[in-house]
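Minutes, methods subgroup
Present: GH (chair), OT, SY

1. OT presented the first of two proteins processed in the latest run. Sequence and structure tokens recorded below as shown on screen.
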Amino acid sequence: MNEFDNKAKEWDADPAKVERARVVADAIRAGVPLGPDLAALEYGCGTGLLSFALHPYLARITLADSSTGMLAILTEKIADASISNMTPIRLDLTTDPLPTGRYGLIYTLMTLHHVPEYAQLLAAFHALLEPGGYLCIADLDKEEAANYHGEGFHGHHGFDRNELHRKLEEAGFVKIGFSTVYEMVRETADGKKFFPLFLMVAQAG
């Protein structure tokens, strides 16, 4: 079972996750020219909090995740809200073939740090974007210690922006920019800690 399957039912009950998605959606709207002709892909969509905040400004959104539990909750939410331009799919770009569709925008929120070999994922994003299409990645800045997820976590403890910039260039992205858009708070063994969240916006070259 995917580790997120068990978290799906309670995911939207955390007001911090709801606020984080709203803030990141506002930052994407400020940094990317959205419009009624733009098709988007959210990768690692979870219960779709970010896409629910963005769907009024886009033509259609494909919401991809590897967690069947998250996708089940998302499917219910889309039906309950009678939203017609959001389509959930199960997809893991580290193991599955690339979808046939192409997009003008791809965005992720707190997903990349869960992917050990993320250069492969960046290459997949570039292949799925139309020329000049936008990639938006919202994720953690590099931590000095393993505080956010703890020592047993097997992904990345945040990202060094310069290193991620280089990886994006190697994948074919241009006009790469970073901004700090949110700050998360967690209680750790060493007390309350603050974790900055960046938004990276780039275009497919």
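2. SY then presented the second protein from the same run.
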Amino acid sequence: MIRFVLDASVALAWCFEDEIAADGLLSLMISAEALVPSIWPVEIGNALLVAERRRRITATAAARHLALLGSLNIQIAPAPSLAWIGDLLPLARRRNLALYDACYLSLASREHIPLATIDAALGRAARLEGVTVLKA
């Protein structure tokens, strides 16, 4: 079974038709396990809420998307400590990333597994850090 870190950008692309296609990675989820940082559920929930507020989706559609994501083999990594956040800051600075993006990259690096992202800046940073990036 393949394991990889799943960036919210990919999961959200599965929810919105007008996003960059990531269907190949969704198909991979049939036989894969995705690992996400503890911030992932909040990041997903916030994106769905913002989409609702912008009338991009309905509350019913948001619930359907949450059900889809909940049906997949996605494991949530333990919450980071403040010490770990201190370790993330140099990575975020070095690669010009937001701290939450550095969480995904750090998790993939620590677990020695690929990162699935459609975020171009995060993908570049991952490659520079020696982390394999899965193609959408």
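Chair's summary of item 2: The radius of gyration is 15 Å.
Next meeting: continue with the remaining queue.
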